[in-house]
Design brief:
This protein is an alpha/beta fold. The protein has helices spanning 2-25, 28-33, 39-46, 50-62, 91-104, 107-113, 127-151, 169-177, 192-201, 238-251, 273-285, 294-303, and strands spanning 37-38, 66-69, 72-75, 159-163, 182-187, 208-212, 224-230, 252-262, 264-265, 292-293, 307-313, 320-325. It contains twelve helices and twelve strands. The strands form three sheets. Strands 6-5-4-7-8-12-11 form a seven-stranded mixed beta sheet, sandwiched between helices. Strands 1-3-2 form a three-stranded antiparallel beta sheet.
């Protein structure tokens, strides 16, 4: 009976999620941050339905994200980070979850017809939204990146190639923990300015060369003895990963090492839980993305020309690290 209750609790979880996502889409946390205000005043200002808005706000109170006094709502400490005006706003992450809502709603059709069947296209980020999301990913990912960088012994390496390195979260962490390292960050034209700004603010721009490119269509820069694919392989099919591994092997110096950070599943593909859920996220949002077992990753790395493939770190938070060496 307890197990049945747990299942029903999980099945109803979408209700709480939908309320929070609607609040994010309407930017309610930002609206309320300035000063306590009533549902009626918010509805009048923005043209919302007063009764519907009040019911949503009341639920946010029950979640601990707002408090209500005399009909006026204000942010709690727990709700403050979801305002766009917060210094470390996590609103872009909620808006990203909102974009995923539509694609996850198509899961039944994907199971029936497979990925790539006729479905409504996902909502796309505009430039400002992409910038805000990448910034939020950096803030929320810094702690884990520092933890991972501190767990790896990279003293023998001199130059890192961060493939699809985004705003530089892992480049920064690896350089901080390895003062001997220089780096190349390789990413798309619209991403590189974000990386330049982030690296400059960290005082690391003099140790990093920024190169524009697309790892799907362009060759990778050479001259490095260490390369990183951080949270990349899950968005690809195995064939796409094999092609990328071949490029990485070709670009590395002999004896160089490729690091892969991602979910690495057990051979039954049921652990870790976050990896199993992320496989569904890739199923409904990409043509061929997935989470992979160590055997699958190792097989593709070896086919690409790497040897000495090892699981350097395991974990449940997309913090597994696989290492592979280009033969001398």
């Amino acid at each position: 009976m307890e197990e049945k209750k747990d299942i029903m609790t999980a099945a109803r979880a979408f209700m709480r999620s939908r309320i929070i996502l609607t609040a994010a889409e309407l930017d309610l946390f930002s609206i309320i941050q300035d000063s306590p205000t009533t549902a009626e005043k918010i509805a009048d200002r923005f043209g919302f339905n007063p009764r519907a808005l009040e019911r949503v706000l009341d639920c946010l109170v029950t979640f601990g994200l707002l408090q209500k006094n005399g009909g006026a709502y204000s942010l709690t400490h727990e709700g403050a980070p979801y305002s766009s005006k917060h210094s470390a706003s996590e609103l872009p992450m909620l808006l990203h979850m909102s974009r995923l809502w539509d694609s996850w709603s198509d899961l039944t059709e994907v199971v029936k017809n497979g990925p790539g069947s006729e479905r409504k296209p996902p909502k796309q980020m505009d430039t400002d939204s992409r910038r805000a999301f990448i910034g939020t990913m950096h803030v929320t990912g810094m702690s884990l990146s520092e933890e991972i960088a501190g767990s790896l012994d990279l003293r023998g390496y001199r130059k890192l190639l961060d493939i699809g390195g985004g705003s530089g979260t892992y480049t920064i962490a690896l350089l901080n923990h390895n003062p001997q390292l220089q780096a190349i960050l390789f990413d798309l034209k619209e991403v590189i300015p974000m990386a330049r700004e982030r690296l400059s603010s960290e005082g690391l721009l003099d140790r990093v060369e920024l190169i524009i490119g697309d790892f799907y269509s362009d060759d990778l820069p050479g001259g490095c003895d260490l390369a990183l694919l951080s949270a990349i392989i899950h968005q690809n099919s195995r064939q796409q990963n094999l092609e990328l591994f071949v490029k990485a092997c070709r670009s590395l110096k002999a004896g160089g090492m490729l690091l892969i950070r991602d979910h690495i599943m057990d051979e039954r593909r049921t652990y870790p839980l976050k990896g199993a859920l992320f496989a569904i996220n890739m199923l409904v949002n990409t043509q061929g993305g997935d989470t992979y077992t160590f055997h699958e990753v190792a097989q593709d790395l070896k086919e690409a020309g790497f040897t000495d493939v090892r699981l350097l770190r395991s974990g449940e938070r997309m913090d597994c690290v696989v290492g592979a060496v280009k033969p001398k």
